[in-house]
Amino acid sequence: MLKKLVILLFISLLSVQISHAEGDELPLFSGIGGSFSAVDADGKAVEFSDFEGQVVVLSFGYTNCADICPFTLGYLARLYSKLTEEEQTKVQIIFVTIDPEYDTPGHLKQFIGHFNSDFVGLSGSKEQIDYIVSLFQAKYQKLSVLNTVPTKNIRRVTPKLFSDESDEEDKASLYSHSVTLYLIDKSGFTRSLEYTGTPVDEFVSKIRGLINE
Amino acid sequence: MGVVSATSTEVEHRVEYTRTLNSMAAVLMNRYGNVLNSDAIDSVYPEKVTGLKITKTDLIKLDLNEYSFNVQSKLTYIQDDSMQAKALDETFIFHIGPLGQATITSKVRNKETSIEVMSLAKFNHDHYQTREFAYTWLAYLDGVVLDNSIKDKPWFDNAEYTVKIGSKEIQGSILSTLAARKAYLFKGGHLLRELEVKVKALEGSDDVFILDLIIDWQGVNAAGKSVLAKIHQTITYQLEEHNQWNVISIEEEHLLPDIAPWQNLLC
Fold first, then answer.
1. Distance (Å, rounded) from C-alpha A67 to C-alpha B161?
2. Residue numbers in A near B4 (CB within 8 A)
3. How far lies A62's CA from each of A74, A97, A114, B65, B200, in Å?
4. CB of A35 less than 8 A from some CB of B
């Protein structure tokens, strides 16, 4: 996976992004995204329409991810910090887990909070998560058989806490997943696809453009 | 990489470009399909053409509604019981009518040379008939009224057209679905990217086929916002007597537009 990360960084150096001046209109990507239901970090049911009126940056990942997810959330934390406090109230960073079985709402909240407590972690049933993944035409695949990798062997940001000190070793699955960051406007339309190779200032400029629409 | 928004002038150019291109391509595909029929349409082609492969094209706008379409091709044919091959360089001058229909006003054979015989078996009549349908269909979607109109086909009122755009789904006849689809893709142009024909195995029949089209669309929605779409259409049709198509259904889904090399990367 680290090799893929290196490739991703290499592509970022090679990619020539057309710079986006604030105020340029970003096109709508037809058929990417839409209405969905999920469960927030407090275990409450949410609808994507609850975020209407805010510019959303949505990404997929999971808490046991050893490389790209912490890297992505660190990037998003840096991006978020470039916005003014007023702008931050108009933007929502959403992290959707692709491992809802392991990533309980509480654990997801703790993981996300490590980067920024304003960020929203969404979980749900496997059917709900698969539907969200399909809406955004993202992909994920399991790299290990169900719950066979001891989590203590994974380089993890936030260890899962257990109230009942079970003798059983905590195990999880590993996944590969899409790395795209979806920039979504206040009406819920996907307007740009970015990734951690996008220069932060360029991404911030696009977000501001959507805030001011 | 990256994307840029479309201004109204860009949209107008896009509409003009795709309407004329699809309309002219439909006429040319029909012409080459006919060349591959037993009856040659034009004395400039050999009588028994067995394969025809287009190797290069060049489209130039000459004037308002006038275009020059240069086509280089290779063809194989039977003469005196032996297989022969030629390379052709032809230019067609097109006039585009008020409803977008293309008409050939002149043809010039620039060059014709004998070449070594090769296998062009898959570039047969079906190859061009399929492409003629695809370009005619796209021209219809762009509002062009061709002589060989989609709207006059016997299957037009019966074919079911389903469109899936994110969490929205539209289902109905071609006319009703297109009317509802206009809210999302109001004004713009369809540009063919990929085409593939498959036999539909599930039907247990060898005369039902699937035509898979990947189409780029760029334009504006009903609210005037710029829209990019990568459209996947699955067209199921039955091949009837005399090679007539009976389109049964059209399923359309909108895919992630190809804008960056990393978008399909999994980490």
1. 44
2. 18, 24
3. 14, 5, 14, 56, 39
4. yes
- Whether chain B has a CB inside 8 Å of the CB on A188: the answer is no
Q: What CATH number is attached to the domain comprising A78?
A: 3.40.30.10
Confidence band of B2 (pLDDT split at 50, 70, 90)? very low
Question: What range does the domain containing A72 cover?
Answer: 26-211
Q: Which are the contacts of A86, defined by CB distance < 8 A and separation ≥ 6?
A: none
Across the interface, do B185 and A30 touch by the CB < 8 Å criterion? yes
Q: What's residue A76's pLDDT?
A: 97
User: Which residues in chain A are closer than 8 Å to B225, comparing Cβ atoms?
Assistant: 25, 27-28, 189
- pLDDT string in tens for chain A (213-residue length): 445 544 444 444 444 333 444 446 899 999 999 999 999 988 999 999 999 999 999 999 999 887 888 999 999 999 999 999 999 999 999 999 999 988 989 889 989 999 999 999 999 999 999 999 999 999 999 887 766 777 777 766 666 665 545 567 777 788 989 999 999 999 999 999 999 999 999 999 999 999 999
Which chain B residues touch A34 with a CB distance below 8 Å? 165-168
d(CA B252, CA B215): 10
Q: Is residue A13 part of a domain?
A: no
Cβ pairs A/B, distance under 8 A: 113
> What is the pLDDT, as a whole number, of residue B242?
82
Closest Cα in chain A, distance from residue B182 (Å) = 12
A31 occurs within a structural domain: yes
- Grade residue B149 by pLDDT with cuts at 50, 70 and 90: confident
Q: Taking CB atoms and an 8 Å limit, are B266 and A176 in contact across chains?
A: yes
Q: Which positions ≥6 away from B267 have C-beta within 8 Å?
A: A1, A4, A5, A8, A67, A68, A176, A177, A179
* Residue A152 included in any domain: yes
**Planar angle of CA B187, B134, B172, nearest 5 degrees:** 65
Prediction pTM value: 0.87
* Assigned domain for A8 exists: no
Q: What b/e string do you get for B57-90 counting C-beta neighbours within 10 Å, with b at 16 or more?
A: eeeeeeeeeebbbebbbbbbbeeeeeebbbebbb
What percentage of chain B reaches a pLDDT higher than 90?
Answer: 75
Cβ atoms of B68 and B93 closer than 8 Å: yes
Residues from chain A that touch B1, judged by Cβ atoms under 8 A, are 15-18
Pairwise CB contact (< 8 Å): A24 & B4: yes
Total number of domains in chain A: 1
SS3 B138: helix
**Alpha carbon distance B152, B145 (integer Å):** 10
Among the partner-chain residues A34, A68, A192, the one whose CB lies closest to the CB of B166 is A34
Identify whether the C-beta of residue B2 lies closer than 8 Å to the C-beta of residue A202: no
